[in-house]
Amino acid sequence: MNAHDGFVPHHALVSAPSAAPARWMLVLHGIFGSGANWRTFIRRLAEAQSAGGAPDAAARPWGFILVDLRAHGMSQSPPAPHTIAAAAEDLLRLGDRLGLDIRGVMGHSFGGKVALAYLERRPTGIERGFILDADPSARPAGESGSESPGVLEMLRAIPQPIPSREAFLEAVHAAGFSRGIADWLAMNVRREGDGFRIRLDLDILDALLTDYFARDLWHVLEDPPAPAGPGVEPRRIHVVLGGRSASISPASRGRFEALAARAPWLSVHVLPRAGHWLHVDDPEGLFDVIRAAL
């Protein structure tokens, strides 16, 4: 076994206090993020199941696994290669390590493409998939959208050590990014010795972004596996898009809609008020879509 075979990403389990989950769902954040970005939303989703809802949900409640994808959050120093495929393989090892019945995956942005790569590697056993404002297409790096490597270049330009967290926020804002983006990125800033440093390996993130833009994973949605046998629930994929998001091209939006019109396994939901950050821009709309689909 080499080093890559043993790498398992950091994770946290979330379920309702009184629940004993019968099935589990991986939750995958976007680039530069961490599992903690989704903790509040996912905790509410978990607790809602114990408060009632669909009979099947009450009988077979979901638990959720908040993952720090490779080179994010507390999943630092992963071995190469740094690709979408490697991130998906990390999730397979995590499932083996936990020994839980993982029946779903939810991914936002960069994490949405990792979710597609994971679905490709799990032809059986996955009942629900949620792809949240993620474009399966290959496209030129630097194209408009919230995964833009402009963030990466900005982080590279900040001298370290950083005097304070406030100085980091000011530098991000001065580079033209919103206070919301600055606060989100500041979750990666930690006190270290003589000041504050960015707890990210920017070279690894550069490699991950390069592979992200190079991958085309439409085939995972357009040609899903058949149910494994009689009585096995078919896979259902729910795509949720922000109506104001710049991360999904018009061509991809059209492709999603055309596929949903002919594919019973795929549903497309648009949150008109939301941009790319669905769980921030319209948490109620996203909550309603996901809860109804569990």
UniProtKB/TrEMBL annotation:
Keyword hit for Lipid biosynthesis: no
Alphabetical keyword list: Hydrolase
The keyword Hydrolase belongs to this UniProt entry's keyword annotation: yes
InterPro entries named in the record: AB_hydrolase_1, AB_hydrolase_fold, Serine_prot/Carboxylest_S33
Pfam families, per the entry: Abhydrolase_6
Family of the protein in this entry: Belongs to the peptidase S33 family.
Protein name: Probable hydrolase, alpha/beta fold family protein
Highest classification ranks of the organism: Bacteria, Pseudomonadati, Myxococcota, Polyangia, Polyangiales
